[in-house]
Amino acid sequence: MPRLTSRAEFEAWRQSILASWDPSKPCITVCGGTGCSALGAKEVTAALGRELKKQGLQDKVDLKMTGCHGFCERGPLVVVYPQHIFYQSVTADDVPDIVSETLIKGNPLERKLYKDLVTGEPIVYEPDVPFYREQHRILMKYNGLIIPTRIQDYIAIGGYQALCKALFEMSPEQVIEEIKRSGLRGRGGAGFPTGRKWEECRRADGDIKYVICNADEGDPGAYQDRSLVEGNPHSILEGIIIGAYAVGAHEGFIYIRHEYPLAVEHITRAAEQAEEYGLLGKNILGSGFDFTFKVHRGAGAFVCGESSALMRSIEGYAGEPRAKRIHATEKGLWERPTVLNNVKTWASVPHIINNGADWFAQMGTETSKGTMVFSLVGKVNNTGLVEVPMGATLRHLVYDIGGGISSGKRCKAVQTGGPSGGCIPERLLDLPVDYEALTEAGSIMGSGGLIVMDEDTCMVDVARYFLHFTMEESCGKCTACREGSRRMYEILERIVHGKGQEGDIERLQEIGTTMINGSLCALGRMAPNPVLSTIRYFREEYEAHIRDKRCPAAVCKDLITYSIIAENCTGCGVCLRNCPQGAITGEKKQVHHIDPSKCIRCGICREVCRFDAIKVE
Ligand SMILES: Cc1cc2nc3c(=O)[nH]c(=O)nc-3n(C[C@H](O)[C@H](O)[C@H](O)COP(=O)(O)O)c2cc1C
Ligand code: SF4
Ligand code: SF4
Ligand code: SF4
Ligand code: FES
């Protein structure tokens, strides 16, 4: 098809796509996101293709491999439309039954349905599964419906209409005003107002300006940006083109992790298609606006997600942060005015232009508008990607969507904001999640990482874990961060090994404060967060480690001993057979014993004992 050269041609093309799009036609979707693909989604799709052909249904039923639906731990996921019948953990062996029972007879296949965690009752329809029912999906809404590599699918759900509206009905200033009024704030960490950033760039001197999408996503465990790029790449591209028009940029980049091959493939394909149809490149849809877009792969250093390091990296230098005496909106990439926004920030833009600033601003809290996508992981029953309005409480996320604590134990804390975030204790679970509330509680929103911890978690060990990550990722340019993170880590190491000293807590606080005040970039300024927040809320755990040489959560190996509770031990011998050190002795049907001098505290005996007879203290 030749490039579209006007809005009228685009509209005619859109109408032809809509005419061939029949929402009532049976359709079976398989999640083809990275998680489900790793679990066998491609085999399921291939088996479905074969089975539909075998049953003569290939023309009557659409088969689609979509992006991530969010509930990755239950993958591979299959949804049958138009009913929205939801199947989890599907294998190729389930396919003949799904086709014969559901597609031919119209019955749900009970063994593949999600079971309610409390009642055990099967739930048939996707919108009724609590994990989905309790969410408010805007950015993630179409991930499970469209083929990400087919621009026609995106057009069918309203894609590129916001771009048309912006280019043909709005001036750049009006676009900026709309984004400002919506209250959209950056979803990559600091929550800077997006409209203000764009305005600063528009007003900056210079003919050459750039826009960049930050898809570096270095937080361990976070994958919401990857899933959006994989599942709906055109939505991000559309946001970027609108942003470029608003600020007056004619060139843009996505900086994306090299370790995200599917996301790289999909955004590259999306850009090629947009170019082919005249939505990218010279004179977009005949509007007179030119914009080119390049995909730049990052090499996987956490610090390269930081704005100035990211721009250095695109320029071809080592990704080291620079002092920000002048905003990037004035002197950014190649010293030109530049707007850098996160994937979720860009993906929000078409929704705001289509539905209006007021629609967006009605969601959320006084200062944080719209929705946020979190990657909910850790000790919850339902882990995955969840989208909720800003201001939803942590309790809602953990219990209503996450289905509560997987171990059946008490929730102890929630860590938000990735490795530079803080730990919020259970008693603050009713905290509404917005930028200010999280900062006040000693944490950050970050890019949406959310890790749930139960009472078996040692908070000193958690702080040590995160500090180790940021210490390793520090670029070493400034002393406060390079040396401060090392010294803090050394102190934490000795505390968890039972060698903590009086004054260590104060030393940690002092070094942490120096890092906050003396570091060049936010990596160093935020790195102390996990330590300072755990001292703030769990000080007694630090004291137990330092003064009593005791780990209350029974995690730190040098501070715990394993023994057998005589009253509970049946002498079954399972622990003896599984102990890797030969540390357990005992006759059959007699109480067993652990030799502390041989025990390496691996915990295997506790895992295998069915009589709750292993004590750790
Ligand atoms: C060490 C470090 C890593 C960062 N990593 C990311 C990242 O992976 N993705 C992201 O969008 N922002 C990241 N940021 C924040 C960016 O510097 C920047 O604030 C953000 O991309 C701006 O976009 P926004 O206004 O849409 O949030 C990181 C910041 C620091 C200090
Ligand atoms: S704060 Fe840390 S990561 Fe940032 S520039 Fe300094 S040494 Fe590098
Ligand atoms: S597994 Fe448990 S019950 Fe069996 S011998 Fe060991 S401690 Fe006793
Ligand atoms: S903790 Fe490990 S080494 Fe120690 S007794 Fe149990 S199984 Fe053996
Ligand atoms: S990858 Fe399939 S639900 Fe996330």
Structure commentary:
The structure is a single chain. With 617 residues, this protein is of the alpha/beta class. Helix content is 40%, strand content 14%. It contains 24 helices and 19 strands. The strands form six sheets. A five-stranded mixed beta sheet has the order 12-11-15-13-14. A four-stranded mixed beta sheet has the order 2-1-3-4, covered by helices on one side. The protein has a four-stranded parallel beta sheet with strand order 9-8-7-10, sandwiched between helices. β8, α12 and β9 form a beta-alpha-beta unit. α8 runs antiparallel to α9 and α19 packs antiparallel against α20. The longest helix is centred in the C-terminal third of the chain and has 19 residues. It is globular and about 85 Å long. 51% of the residues are buried. Bound molecules: flavin mononucleotide, iron/sulfur cluster (3 copies) and FE2/S2 (inorganic) cluster. The site of one iron/sulfur cluster has 13 residues, from α23.
Please write out the topology.
Layout: H1 7-19, E1 27-31, H2 34-38, H3 41-54, E2 62-66, E3 78-81, E4 85-87, H4 95-104, E5 114-115, E6 122-123, H5 130-133, H6 151-156, H7 161-169, H8 172-182, H9 194-203, E7 210-215, H10 224-231, H11 233-247, E8 251-257, H12 261-276, E9 292-298, H13 307-315, E10 338-342, H14 343-355, H15 357-361, E11 371-378, E12 384-389, H16 394-401, E13 411-416, E14 422-425, H17 435-440, E15 449-454, H18 459-473, H19 479-496, H20 504-518, H21 522-526, H22 529-547, E16 562-564, H23 574-578, E17 584-585, E18 593-594, H24 604-608, E19 614-616
Parallel strand pairs: 1-2, 7-8, 7-10, 8-9, 11-15
Antiparallel strand pairs: 1-3, 3-4, 5-6, 11-12, 13-14, 13-15, 16-19, 17-18
Helix pairs in contact: 7-11, 7-14, 8-9, 8-11, 10-11, 10-12, 11-14, 18-19, 18-22, 19-20, 20-22
The structure holds flavin mononucleotide (FMN), iron/sulfur cluster (3 copies) and FE2/S2 (inorganic) cluster.
One iron/sulfur cluster binds at residues 564, 569-575, 592, 609, 611, 613-614.
